[in-house]
Q: What sequence folds into this?
């Protein structure tokens, strides 16, 4: 089975907490602070692997967590960084944010790596907080949380050329003849269940990847059959070979078939209908083909390059493949993703939000949460450090802009404080 969509949850490691510790040596009775820093949390990383061709593994395991960083230790010893977790995906995997639908990254290169969820930073130990006026800080900094994210993985084939056309027009036969691919070939009207890839080799440094794109039937763009699942693979191809049963051997009109397939491409994504198409009028070895070919050329011959031949007898296939190769050299192609406005960088914000809600002054945000967890409210130095940070980050100024007065309550996370300067 060809699995090309999976939804998974990712959680980067939390940074280790800084330590509060003191030097305890025989001849140092008044030893100073010696708490070490916490280690950074592990990242969650995607890496492409050419040996993997489906997203099957992600159907069985849906949650992945990187290792937390170790807490700092005494004697200024740092905690160990958490280990990264590397998730291997096929080349051609598109990663989308589940919540917004925005594209995070397009993994289209081999051995490409991308940090999808960054681990939290380790907190500083109390040894880091000594100053000329604060010789013995009895507080340390908490490690920050790692990024958590739910993403959709979507695999799109990375073929240079896509074979499109109705089922049973000869796409699989053509693919098996021009490449080493061995798709199942039979006389049926339902479609292949997975795209078949093959490499066309015309000589030294003259090769390209070709794919039989299944699922293209009338109504495919609206979800009929499996077409909407496989139309996404057409987005990655550089050009298309439109295979037609020019003989009309099964009672179909090749001109009508051509228009119907192109309507499905346009309905799914208008840019698909703008891709270069080369027509291969197949089954020329069957009676009636010559007459239909003339009708087709009269209708569309001025707008498309048309080759006629037979996949079954290999007539004109070599000429078709050489023409396709030359076209690929002249075609400047960029992989289809999404508009820039939808692409998100997903850098973790460490901001502070100051606002009023229901008549109350409130302060929250990732940075303030980390600051609160790092503060020892029973220690005067730790309290001073807390207040200094609020002032340095303009929290006091923002509260004043909102109209706070001496003695008013301020709610920082779940704690209530009395405002004074």
A:
């Amino acid at each position: 089975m060809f699995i090309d969509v999976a939804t998974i949850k990712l959680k980067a490691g939390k940074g280790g907490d800084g330590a509060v510790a003191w030097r305890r040596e025989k001849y140092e009775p008044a030893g100073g602070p010696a708490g070490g820093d916490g280690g950074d949390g592990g990242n969650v990383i995607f890496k492409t692997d050419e040996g993997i061709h489906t997203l099957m593994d992600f159907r069985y395991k849906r949650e992945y967590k990187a290792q937390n960083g170790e807490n700092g230790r005494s004697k200024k010893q740092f905690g160990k960084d958490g280990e990264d977790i590397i998730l291997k995906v096929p080349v051609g995997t598109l990663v989308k944010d589940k919540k917004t639908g925005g594209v995070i990254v397009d993994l289209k290169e081999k051995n490409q790596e991308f940090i999808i969820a960054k681990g939290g930073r380790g907190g500083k130990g109390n040894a880091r907080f000594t100053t000329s006026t604060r010789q013995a800080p009895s507080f340390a900094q908490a490690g920050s949380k790692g990024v958590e994210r739910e993403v959709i993985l979507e695999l799109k084939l990375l073929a240079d050329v896509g074979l499109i056309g109705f089922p049973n027009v000869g796409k699989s036969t053509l693919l098996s003849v021009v490449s080493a691919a061995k798709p199942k070939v039979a006389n049926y009207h339902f479609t292949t269940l997975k795209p078949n890839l093959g490499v066309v080799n015309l000589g030294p440094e003259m090769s390209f990847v070709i794919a039989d794109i299944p699922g293209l039937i009338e109504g495919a763009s609206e979800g009929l059959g499996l077409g909407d699942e496989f139309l996404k693979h057409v987005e990655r191809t550089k050009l298309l070979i439109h295979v037609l049963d020019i003989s009309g051997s099964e009672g179909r009109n090749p001109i009508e078939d051509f228009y119907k397939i192109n309507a499905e491409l346009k309905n799914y994504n208008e840019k698909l209908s703008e891709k270069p198409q080369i027509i291969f009028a197949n089954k020329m070895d069957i009676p009636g083909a010559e007459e239909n070919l003339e009708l087709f050329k009269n209708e569309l011959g001025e707008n498309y390059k048309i080759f006629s031949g037979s996949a079954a007898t290999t007539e004109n296939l070599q000429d078709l493949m050489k023409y396709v190769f030359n076209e690929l050299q002249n075609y400047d192609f960029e992989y289809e993703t999404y508009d820039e406005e939808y692409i998100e960088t997903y850098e973790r914000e460490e901001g502070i939000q100051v606002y009023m809600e229901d008549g109350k002054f409130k302060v929250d945000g990732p940075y303030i949460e980390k600051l609160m967890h790092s503060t020892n409210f029973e220690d005067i130095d730790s309290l001073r450090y807390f207040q200094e940070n609020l002032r340095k980050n303009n929290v006091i100024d923002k509260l004043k802009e909102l109209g706070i007065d001496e003695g008013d309550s301020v709610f920082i996370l779940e704690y209530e404080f009395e405002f004074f300067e």
